[in-house]
Design a protein that fits this description.
α5 packs parallel to α7. 31% of the residues lie in helices and 27% in strands. It is an alpha+beta fold. A hairpin with a 5-residue loop joins β11 and β12. Strands 1, 2, 3, 4 and 5 form a five-stranded antiparallel sheet that branches. Strands 7-14-13-9-10 form a five-stranded mixed sheet. The radius of gyration is 29 Å and the shape is elongated. The chain has two domains: 157 residues, Nuclear Transport Factor 2, Chain: A, CATH 3.10.450.100; 139 residues, Immunoglobulin-like (Sandwich).
Length: 337
């Protein structure tokens, strides 16, 4: 037997240990990559069960609200059109994981993923006659890239994703669209005062019935300002109903941005809604913004001594009266329903 000095033994043992450590690091980075890849695929497939398998133990409790949202069927969460829209957008999600980005620091790691999906926000800004036309637009729309760094932790020898909430919020914004109605359905079928889901939530500021469909891109700035600042009927009750004999109806748009002159039109109907044949056009004109002492900007339309009935108020940019309105609001005076 050939004797081996202790120093040589120590060197040999160190070399073996170093070799084993190196193999472990490579293996761990592969495990991080695999965990990230599995999670990213599950996200692209909108599959909560598979996401849970590679996520930290709080995943199911933290994501309970997503259980119905990621099922794109008509029901409590979506009307029929919105369900088809969400399903079509979800089908466009793909991903690519950077296999060289996995970085490990003890029991924590990170890996980069780039998701690609349709630019659904640009699709929503378009004008469509029905849901089929919107689906066609999704198929030809541009794509957007969403870069996300997955945060991964080692738990009981397994690598699991911990920032799943951030990922889902960044990627699943399209699920916020729950109701879609198109021009043919709106005029033929929709009566907001007979719709059991129609509700006003503000005590002194009534919500708008919604933007008119078909507004063009030039009106987007005005549309955003009116919706974000929640235009309202001044003095209206919780259901935007005024008592008979009300001296005036004032439609106010509070805003901090001067968008220039706006065109207002008002239709009156004694019975039913203002989009039927028995309406009377009682006001067409431009209204300039009013700026108070604090610099706040608003547009105010006053209707003196309104008769009992429905009033349909539409607002358009003042380029011309023929443009599609950016905002449509309905109120009524008296018991005209």
């Amino acid at each position: 037997m050939i004797p081996i000095k202790k120093s040589a033994c120590a060197a040999l043992a160190g070399a073996i240990l170093l070799s084993m450590t190196g193999c472990s690091a490579i293996s761990s980075e592969e495990d991080v990559y695999d965990a990230g890849d599995s999670f990213a695929k599950a996200v692209a497939d909108c599959d909560l069960d598979k996401m849970a398998k590679v996520s930290s133990e709080d995943f199911e409790d933290d994501t309970k609200e997503w259980e119905e949202i990621l099922v794109f069927d008509e029901g409590d969460k979506y009307n029929a059109n919105a369900a088809r829209f969400a399903d079509a957008v979800a089908d466009t999600i793909s991903y690519e994981i950077d296999d060289e980005s996995a970085k490990i620091d003890k029991d924590e790691a990170k890996v980069d993923v780039e998701f690609t999906m349709v630019d659904y926000e640009s699709v929503l800004r378009g004008s469509y006659y029905d849901i089929d036309a919107m689906i066609d637009a999704i198929e030809v729309a541009d794509e957007v890239e969403i870069k996300i760094t997955l945060e991964v932790s080692e738990v009981d020898g397994e690598w699991v994703v911990t920032n799943y909430g951030e990922v889902m919020n960044d990627l699943y914004g399209f699920t916020d669209t729950r109701d879609l109605m198109f021009e043919d359905e709106y005029y033929e079928n929709y009566d907001p005062y007979s719709d059991p889901e129609y509700d006003f939530e503000l005590a002194l500021e009534s919500e708008l019935t919604g933007p008119s469909y078909g507004y063009i891109s030039d009106t987007q700035e005005m549309y955003d300002a009116f919706i974000e600042d929640q235009a309202y009927f001044e003095g209206a009750g919780s259901e935007a109903v005024f008592a008979s004999g009300t001296s005036s109806i004032i439609f106010v748009q509070p805003s901090s941005a001067d968008l220039g002159t706006a065109c207002f039109t008002v239709e009156y109907s004694a019975v039913g809604q203002c989009d039927y044949m028995d309406t009377e056009l009682i006001f067409v004109g431009e209204i300039d913004p009013v700026i108070d002492e604090n610099g706040n900007v608003s547009y105010q339309l006053e209707i003196e001594e309104p008769e009992d009935g429905y009033y349909l108020i539409e607002v358009s940019p003042s380029v011309g009266y023929s443009l599609d309105p950016v905002v449509t609001a309905v109120c009524r005076v008296g018991d005209a329903a």
